[in-house]
Amino acid sequence: MKRLLSLLTLLLLTALAYFGWPVYQFYAFNLEKVPVLASAAPLPQGPLPHQSHHGPALGAFNTRAADILKTTRATSNAPGISAAIAHRGELVWQGTLGYADIKTKTALTPKHQFRIGSTSKAVTATLMAKLMQEQNFNLDTPLQDSLTPLPNPAWRDITPRQLASHSAGLPHYKGNQDRIGLYRSLSLNTQFDRVQDAVAQFDEGPLRAKPGDAFYYSSYGTVLLSAVLAQHAQRPYLDLLKQHVLTPLGMRHSGTESQGNKLATFYFSRRGQDARYIPWRPVNLSHRLAGGGLISTPSDLVRLGSGYLDPHYLHPAVRKQIWTPQRLNHGEVNPQNYALGWRRHEYQHNGQPAFTYYHHGGVSRGSQSMLIVVPHHQLSVAVNINSKTKPFWIFGEAALKLAHAYVQLTEQAQREPLDTKVSAASSTASLLAK
């Protein structure tokens, strides 16, 4: 009997360790409620490695951009920062500062890939826009008519518009009432090969509100939207993404983490401010691909933004639908000015309106992302870091600072003599053609 009790105790302790360790890591890395049981390392001594790629005409801008990266990396306390700018559909500037990997002293380059978190929602919204344009996808068809079998009868009146604008009433991760699904969203060690299987992790329980009544940010809503898109087109979500978004826009370094061939190492630091770093625990984000699980580079992200400014890729009427902030049932625009997979805001410099921009940030495990598009100036800017910082805007504002600096440069160039501008434009075109 004693041997049996000992064996049962051992099995129980083993099970607790197996299932409890991922939860412990969640509380350590994400909530910082318990210690991270790993040793931390500082950045290598000496100047941080840096790179920049630009045309001769952007020499003055590059100096300003380098200062922005330096300040943002320091205030964000990130091992590395990477950024890119596209203007009028052309990649005109790339810059990096710091490390992709501290242990190996690998310098960050423009080709290093990052987890982009909720910036994935803008990528999924782009797929939705293309299906609206090419396959008559309807934003207002209720799920009872567009998703069969319907996983939850409470979802019958939800529309794709509400899923894309966070007004469907679905919960976010911690509000999940499916206990197994909630555990898997904490442990992050389960592979989901199909979107439908990911949806099954949160298809229980009531809605937080009647569809359209309130704004509740929900990555699960975007995951459910990806299932609706896949059923409409009768193809897997990732296949559709590659066909309609990644390939036509030249986003060769974007996709799932399992496809990444030049991933940066993602880091944890205590409260985002400790100057010592621990590699983030291994995670599997396949349950949230469409809403927060994709990888990309700043250069690829600005290609996505540029696609919205290209009428040959996306019709202006479709772009207008995607970028229009959505109204709730009471008639008022939602509190985040959220459109369909994008937010719309005004940038002010020194208290004066500077430009309207559309954007989506992202926070993932050991990584942050920011993408903005400034239509009036035909500009797209993206910034990524391989750690997390609080508040997000310490990092996110870098994209706006880069955009404003670039706008100032172009406005100054417009006032220069014509022969000077022609010479600078020729030099830039020659460099980017290489």
From TrEMBL:
Q: Name one Pfam family in it.
A: Beta-lactamase
Upper taxonomic lineage: Bacteria, Pseudomonadati, Pseudomonadota, Gammaproteobacteria, Alteromonadales
Q: Could you tell me which InterPro entries the record lists for this protein?
A: AmpC-like (IPR050491), Beta-lactam-related (IPR001466), Beta-lactam/transpept-like (IPR012338)
| Name used for this protein in its record | Beta-lactamase-related domain-containing protein
Sorted alphabetically, which Gene3D superfamilies does this protein's record hold? DD-peptidase/beta-lactamase superfamily (3.40.710.10)
Q: Which PANTHER family match?
A: BETA-LACTAMASE-RELATED DOMAIN-CONTAINING PROTEIN, D-ALANYL-D-ALANINE-CARBOXYPEPTIDASE/ENDOPEPTIDASE AMPH
Query: In this protein, which residues make up the domain named Beta-lactamase-related?
Result: 68-391
SUPFAM superfamilies from the UniProt entry: beta-lactamase/transpeptidase-like
Q: Where would one find coiled-coil regions in this protein?
A: none
